[in-house]
Amino acid sequence: MYLPDLFHEQDFETIAALIDAHPLAALTRIVNGAIVADHIPFLFDAKANVLRAHVARANPLWRDFDPASEALAIFTGLDHYVTPSWYATKRETGKVVPTWNYEAVHVYGRLRAIDDPKWIRTLLRDLTARHEAARPAPWALEDAPDDFIDAMLKAIVGIELSITRIEAKRKLSQNRNAADRAGVIAGLEAEGGETAERMAKAMAALDTKA
Known about the structure:
Elements: H1 12-21, E1 24-31, E2 34-41, E3 43-45, E4 50-56, H2 61-64, E5 71-82, H3 88-92, E6 99-114, H4 117-132, H5 146-154, E7 156-171, H6 178-191, H7 194-209
Antiparallel strand pairs: 1-2, 1-5, 3-4, 4-7, 5-6, 6-7
Helix pairs in contact: 6-7
């Protein structure tokens, strides 16, 4: 990933929060000389430095990877088009062009398959707890009949990515002057909608941190 210093995110808590908020990753690997990708929701265990997930037993992923080669999980966070019309510089010189603001995390590591019902059951409990926590009546694994869950467990296989390195990028108009950044934030807020509003808040928080 092209990673200028200005956009290079190195704060671990920020990176972990981004993965937690956007857990669906494109897991890419080389199979027989071709690039293959699967879209999988991961759980990031920062203490163990691994990503955990499961796939359908019918998915060849858990059999066809090379354990000696790195795989890459790509997480994408917020993204939004930025019109040059929002820049103060447009009114001053006109020397502006459109761009796109976005967040991305690339997690590299080595895969292993885990065909262990106990391990997978624990993973399912953890995943469910993470994604059901904010609901008024959270669903739990125990809400389904035991025999049904046992049958489901036989249909999936666990995977774990042991992390070797992480690259994170947050391109949030850090290359623009303060007036242009303020203009982008105001423009996003005026445009409205959840995506625009969240991008505006992320940019404003970055300004506050700076």
